[in-house]
Amino acid sequence: MKKLLITLFVLAAMFIPKPVLSADDYDKEWLPGDSIVVGSVCKSEKVILEVARNDTISEEATLNKIREFTYTDDCLTVFPPIPFYVHSIVVGYKDFKKRPSVVLALRFIGDKQQNIVGYAIGAGSPGSI
Predict the structure, then answer these.
(1) β-strand 100-107 against 118-123: which pairing, if any?
(2) Phi-psi bin for 100: left (phi > 0), alpha (psi -120 to 50), beta?
(3) Residue 37 near residue 17 (C-beta atoms within 8 A)
(4) For residue 110, how many other CB atoms are within 10 A of its CB?
(5) Model confidence pLDDT, tens digit, residues 20-30
(6) Is omega for the bond preceding 80 within 30 degrees of 0, making it cis?
(7) How many angstroms from the chain centroid is the CA of residue 71?
(8) To 5 degrees, how large is the angle CA 100–CA 102–CA 105?
(9) pTM given for the model
(10) What is the DSSP string of 35-69?
């Protein structure tokens, strides 16, 4: 029984998406319909744009702003990170290290109506169709 539980746990862990950020991730061009795994989701465009503004200052400023918005329930931090589809690209910008970053509107996977359910920041730039 113990071996069965360990085997099931290992198999389940293999299918949980794990976010990995490498230098190549900043080469990513985001398009609607792309999938992304995120650990922090903000509920409005106004809130995520404030987070993005802080991302142009420093990592500490960004984390502090996300923490502040989490306390006021304007952002949600989830663990483990969960997958979404990109609904649309809000804006591209350069972060505090001058790397390309993008603000993304998100939708749930499997949502036929494609409703925006939150906003997040991704590494990379807006793609062109």
Answers:
(1) antiparallel
(2) beta
(3) yes
(4) 6
(5) 344 457 888 89
(6) yes
(7) 19
(8) 170
(9) 0.78
(10) EEEEEEEESSHHHHHHHHHHHTT-HHHHHHHHHHH
